[in-house]
Design a protein that fits this description.
Layout: H1 7-18, E1 24-27, E2 39-42, E3 60-63, H2 77-97, E4 103-109, E5 117-120, E6 124-126, H3 133-137, E7 152-155, H4 168-187, E8 191-196, E9 198-200, H5 213-222, E10 228-229, E11 236-237, E12 239-241, H6 242-254, E13 260-264, E14 270-271, H7 272-282, E15 291-292, H8 309-315, H9 323-332
């Protein structure tokens, strides 16, 4: 397990240990959320020497480690490529050298899609192009039809949609997917790629620009402030609880014949403003309402809502934690441990 000391990875480790599996975690951070029954190796994934002591006898690999989030600007590009692409290449090369013959599961992301799926009343299904700064600065947040410029209706995006990364993080996740897919084909091994949608829940970091939006909103509320909502708050996402994400990983790691690409989503889209409002009601007296700023980030997309049909069919996975229950749990958790640098 790579990245097993982090947010999602630590929950996957807990699930594997509870299922009776022997788990070795490789992570460059100490085990803040360490499971006493797992073995931890503190090392950087990009360090080739780190792999000599951990791969013997391994029959499955869960690759969770990554630098995540939109980042702070293009200046982050080298860090993203090093942590996501180069480290993945080092891992795969080590697996190849040692004759690994088991199952490989990659934690990917819905960011590889860019914008989600859209339909135009006149043109039918279309791919929305990147939103321009001119339109965003004018408050025109919905992407128009690329053909007739009419308005679009957002739909669920399936795993067969073309990949269209819109920021550095997304580009590195696409490359990760390609690398593990090539590795699986060349070695004839089962590879499952899980495209997480917006993951939230206990252990999520709040003190970093790479944190998820639910964590950032919660951090603002705990400081006595209010969530600052970009655009008009109408952008839709699928928020899926970390326990559901961990369960999807366990199913992918232990299935007899699962493989390919699956969205990991709840199937219940929510606007960002709805999320911020619900969190505000969970914290304190609920009187601190979110502020819709109208601000924007050029690398953001408007709507991404994942189809859950393939994960249900291939993995037997259906999300089970309702959003209101999950947000209440998140708000009730203690003050988070400071996140290490990604």
């Amino acid at each position: 397990m790579t990245g097993g000391a982090g947010f999602v990875g630590s929950h996957v480790v807990d699930g594997l240990v509870a299922g009776g599996h022997d788990v070795v975690v490789v992570d460059r951070r100490p085990g803040t959320f360490a499971n006493a029954e797992a073995r931890y190796v503190v090392a950087d994934l990009a360090d080739e020497a780190a792999w000599s002591e951990v791969l013997g006898g391994v029959d499955a690999v869960s690759h969770q480690a990554a630098r995540v989030g939109l980042g702070t600007g293009f200046g982050d590009v080298q860090g993203y490529v090093t942590d996501n692409d180069s480290a993945t290449a080092v891992l795969l090369a080590a697996l190849d050298r040692t004759g690994f013959a088991g199952r490989l599961v990659l934690a990917s992301s819905m960011v590889v899609y860019g914008e989600g799926a859209y339909r135009c009343a006149t043109c039918g299904p279309v791919r929305a192009g990147p939103r321009t700064e001119a339109r965003l600065s004018a408050g025109l947040f919905e992407p128009p039809c690329p053909n007739c410029r009419d308005s679009l209706v957002a739909e669920e995006v399936s795993e067969d949609a073309p990949l269209d990364p819109r920021n550095v993080y997304a580009a590195t996740k696409v490359h990760q997917e390609h690398l593990v897919a090539v590795f699986g084909r060349e070695r004839g091994l089962p590879v499952t790629i899980l495209r997480y949608h917006n993951v939230y829940g206990p252990r999520s970091p709040e003190d970093t620009p790479y944190a998820g939006v639910a964590s950032l909103f919660l951090a603002a509320l705990r400081r006595g402030g209010v969530p600052q909502v970009f655009e008009d708050g109408g952008q839709r996402r699928d928020f899926v609880h970390v326990r559901d994400v961990a369960r999807a990983n366990l199913l992918a790691l232990t299935a007899d014949d699962a493989g390919g690409v699956c969205n990991v989503a709840s199937g219940r889209p929510t606007t960002v403003l709805e999320l911020a409002t619900a969190l505000s009601q969970c914290v304190g007296d609920g009187g601190r309402r979110p502020v819709v700023t109208g601000g924007y980030r050029l690398g953001d997309v408007r709507h991404v809502m994942g189809s859950t049909a393939r994960a249900a069919r291939e993995l037997g996975f259906t999300a089970s934690v309702p959003l209101d229950e999950g947000l209440a749990e998140l708000a009730d958790q203690g003050e988070p441990v400071a996140a290490a640098e990604p």
